[in-house]
Amino acid sequence: MNALLKKIDMAGIAGIIVIVFACGSWVVTDIRARNHRYNIEQHLISEKMKEVNIATTNLEALKSALAETSDELALLSERVPEAGKIGTLLGQINQLAKHRRVTLVSLEPQPPEPVKDFIRTPLRLNCLGEFADILYLLWDLERMNRIMVMESMTISRDGVSQKLRVDLLAYVFER
């Protein structure tokens, strides 16, 4: 009976050892699988972080471009104002003429003409003054913060005062 118990004990110990090795093998395999999944997830997270960094860089570039475009739009809105602001422009021209000692004989906006996205308003300006004063007035008109296209100009000498008479047709634009 002693030999039978030894064989049963040995078989039990061998069974336990097999079970321990099987469980150990299963645990090692599970740990390796989890480690592999962990590495894959770390790689995916790393790739996503790179994408996020690229997207952040692109977003900053877009924000910068938007700010520049907004500044350009504000400047354009100032240079090409909304319709109905022609009175302000006429007042500015009158002030420039007074500043340059030029007599405005007439300053007449003509009927507006629609052109694509803008309204083009012909502006007829007739004035008298000395050559240098008129030259500086024209220079001031060119430098105004409004888009103004000078279309035609006639310069003659006034018979009475011997000053220069300028008849100018210019176009101003509005939205």
Task: Explain what you see.
A hairpin with a 6-residue loop joins β4 and β5. The chain folds into two domains: 1-79; 86-174, Alpha-Beta Plaits (2-Layer Sandwich). It is 60% helix and 25% strand. It contains three helices and five strands. Strands 1, 2, 3, 4 and 5 form a five-stranded antiparallel beta sheet that branches. It is rod-shaped and about 150 Å long. The relative contact order is 0.10.
CATH topology name of the largest domain, in short, is Alpha-Beta Plaits
Could you name the CATH homologous superfamily of the largest domain?
Answer: Ribosomal protein S6/Translation elongation factor EF1B
How much strand?
15-25%
Instruction: Estimate the mean pLDDT confidence.
Output: 87
Topology of this structure?
Elements lengths: L1 H78 L6 H14 L3 E7 L3 E3 L2 E12 L1 H13 L4 E10 L6 E11 L1
Antiparallel strand pairs: 1-3, 2-3, 3-5, 4-5
List keywords for this structure.
5-stranded antiparallel sheet; 175 residues; rod-shaped; 25% strand; alpha+beta; 5 strands; Alpha-Beta Plaits
Short recap of the structure:
This protein has helices spanning 2-79, 86-99, 131-143, and strands at residues 103-109, 113-115, 118-129, 148-157, 164-174. It has 175 residues and is of the alpha+beta class.
